[in-house]
Specification:
The protein is an alpha/beta fold. It is built from nine helices and six strands. The chain is globular.
């Protein structure tokens, strides 16, 4: 993807990287949600900084914790969850580095949050598609029947910490990556993707009194408030698309 704004984007991106605060990832990558006396299901989260919950204290307050809590409530079951994620990881590195770390012998649901770093590295939609497909196939070999849910692509076009030029260029690229991801997902059974673009204006209408900045921990990564809303929405999606058919 070539844009006349690219030299400006590179300059501004390098400046942001130098000045951007480096927040720690969440602690506690394993946990439980719901009624432990009920039959438990196992969920594994994979991905980059969003799944690693940069800027959040614990994973219980991050995406996987909030998602599992919402899913446990909807299905009236216990949920055991684990997170394998690292800030800066692409789909390729996730497949090569994180998947081999999975210790669970049985997984009821994979949740994958990727796309930001493949966009930041300016990987083409074709390369992104190829790496996502390889990731799905690797998981399928080890867990043939486990549903896989890809989360919404990161809303780079809204990041307060980015300049308008960066939001425009990378926002368009991440949109193309989202369209490519949807095509890849459609090739597989029991693989899901939420193509709905996150619009903070909708969340602000639901939660008056908040500002756009309240949805970010540092201007890029989601805040606890975002994970609460997003986790509930993604739990509703997977219940409606998968478990309602059982």
């Amino acid at each position: 993807m070539v844009s006349p704004l690219m030299p400006l984007v590179f300059y501004q991106g390098n400046r942001i990287r130098r000045e951007f605060p480096r927040l720690p990832e969440a602690t506690g990558p394993h946990g439980k949600s719901g009624d432990s006396e009920q039959e438990e299901m196992t969920i594994v989260g994979l991905g980059e900084s969003t799944m690693a919950c940069v800027g959040i204290d614990t994973h219980e307050n991050g995406f996987i914790g909030q998602f599992s809590k919402a899913l446990a409530n909807r299905l009236q079951t216990g949920v055991k969850w684990s997170v394998y994620a690292k800030s800066g990881y692409t789909a390729k590195v996730t497949r090569e580095t994180l998947v081999p770390q999975i210790v669970e012998s049985h997984v009821d649901l994979f949740i994958i949050s990727l796309g930001g770093n493949d966009t930041f590295q300016l990987n083409s939609p074709k390369k992104w598609s190829e790496e996502v497909e390889k990731l799905i196939k690797v998981l399928r070999r080890q867990f043939p029947s486990t549903p896989i849910l890809f989360t919404t692509m990161p809303p780079i076009h809204t990041f307060p910490a980015f300049t308008g030029s960066i939001r425009f260029v990378l926002g368009n690229l991440v949109r193309l990556h989202g369209e490519a991801l949807e095509k890849v997902v459609n090739k597989f059974e029991n693989v899901y993707y939420d193509p709905k673009k996150i619009e903070l204006s909708e969340w602000l209408n639901k939660l008056p009194g908040n500002t756009k900045e309240d949805f970010y921990s540092d201007g890029v990564h989601p805040s606890k408030l975002t994970f609460e809303i997003w986790g509930q929405e993604m739990a509703e999606l997977i219940v409606n698309d998968h478990y309602s058919k059982d």
